[in-house]
Amino acid sequence: MGKVLALAGNPNVGKSTVFNALTGLKQHTGNWPGKTVSNARGTCDYNGRQYELVDLPGCYSLMAHSEEEEIARDYICFAHPDVVIAVCDATCLERNLNLVLQIIEAAEQVIVCVNLMDEAAKKQIHIDIKGLSKELGVPVIGITAREEIGLERIFLTLQQMEKQKSHKLLAFVYEGPVERAIGMLEPAVEWATKGEENTRWFCARLLDANSNLLDSMEEYLGYSLVEDAEVAGALKEAVEYLAQAGYSKEKISDAIAASYIRRAEQISRKTVQYGKKDYDRKDRRLDWIFTSKKTGFPIMFLMLLLVFWITICGANYPSQLLSDGLFWGKINWYWRCGRPASRR
Ligand SMILES: Nc1nc2c(ncn2[C@@H]2O[C@H](COP(=O)(O)OP(=O)(O)OP(=O)(O)O)[C@@H](O)[C@H]2O)c(=O)[nH]1
Ligand SMILES: [Mg+2]
């Protein structure tokens, strides 16, 4: 069997479009998020080599909140695909980088595909692909999946990666106290997992204490890391140290989440340029109108009224039109061909 390539990314960024273009299959695509709800598999050949592609459901973070996100997270973190292809939307790269950073931290090998380059060009958004690759420490490719532009470069990059011996990804760096707490945990986790796992990632997740992720971790390892005596002791010390440094339990996971957001912001500032300064003025204005307290609540109330009106009497108008149309259609049909011959 060939290499397994997993397509991961935020919802609605074109993962299934890439999957369909490469495999010739027809995964459901459409312009709204959450279409792919389970892993779809297909194969493709390039230069005599076979690859197995896995189209994952979209997710915003590896700290999953929904069933689909859990499916994607567990696959990326525990199924060991040979390469994760992280698909991003070029028109809102900063938001997408949050997940990309988490994927790079968790996976063994990653290629980042910045999709919708056509839309970015229309909005005069310029992305420094080389600079992005340098910042992330992984290969980055600009693609327009809908036109099948740039897809071949995925395979060329895969072949280049095969030639390189070492695939060590850049380590993601958290803020000082979290880093020190990870350092306190590392020896115990390394020992418990016999050095066979991504120790730093496991340590950060133990500090993060997302119960859902810890359950998946236990299922994957076949034992509970937090119940290992050495790990439990080190974890207690690390959490106490963080508490002294002013990090309550909730603040630890907030600090971890904030680290990804800050880094995504830094990278985006360095690598994305906007030709039009007010490229998203319309979106921001609509955002403000619909989400501010002053206007948001009245708009929501009016919309609820509209829904009530449609449910109670508004729907009668189209149904009346339909019934009139059918009634006249029936009479016409009767006069043209339905009358008994004697009366014609
Ligand atoms: N303009 C443009 N649109 C694209 C491109 N790639 C995909 N799309 C469109 O983006 C929308 C979403 O594509 P999908 O492939 O369904 O996205 P997805 O990431 O699989 O979405 P989920 O399964 O919901 O996570 C569709 O309307 C595609 O036609 C592209 O390169 N350019
Ligand atoms: Mg999809």
Uncertain runs: none
Structurally, the number of domains stands at 3
Name the CATH superfamily classification of the largest domain. P-loop containing nucleotide triphosphate hydrolases
CATH topology descriptor of the largest domain: Rossmann fold
Protein architecture, described:
- With 344 residues, the protein is of the alpha/beta class.
- It has three domains: 3-163, Rossmann fold (3-Layer(aba) Sandwich), CATH 3.40.50.300; 176-247; 283-338, no CATH class.
- It is 56% helix and 12% strand.
- Strand 2 and strand 3 form a beta hairpin.
- The protein is globular and about 90 Å long.
- The N and C termini lie far apart (75 Å).
- The model has no long low-confidence stretch (mean pLDDT 90).
- Residues 9, 11-17, 29-31, 33-36, 57-58, 115-116, 118-119, 144-146 line the site of guanosine-5'-triphosphate (GTP).
List keywords for this structure.
binds guanosine-5'-triphosphate; Fe(2+) transporter FeoB; ferrous iron transmembrane transporter activity; single chain; six-stranded mixed beta sheet; Rossmann fold; binds magnesium ion; two-stranded antiparallel sheet; GTP binding; alpha/beta; 3 domains; 344 residues
Spell out the blueprint of helices and strands.
Blueprint: E1 3-9, H1 15-23, E2 40-46, E3 49-55, H2 67-78, E4 83-89, H3 93-106, E5 110-115, H4 117-122, E6 125-127, H5 129-136, E7 140-142, H6 152-163, H7 176-192, H8 199-208, H9 211-221, H10 229-244, H11 249-271, E8 272-274, H12 281-291, H13 293-314, H14 316-338
The structure holds guanosine-5'-triphosphate (GTP) and magnesium ion.
Magnesium ion (MG) binds at residues 15-16, 27, 35-36, 55.
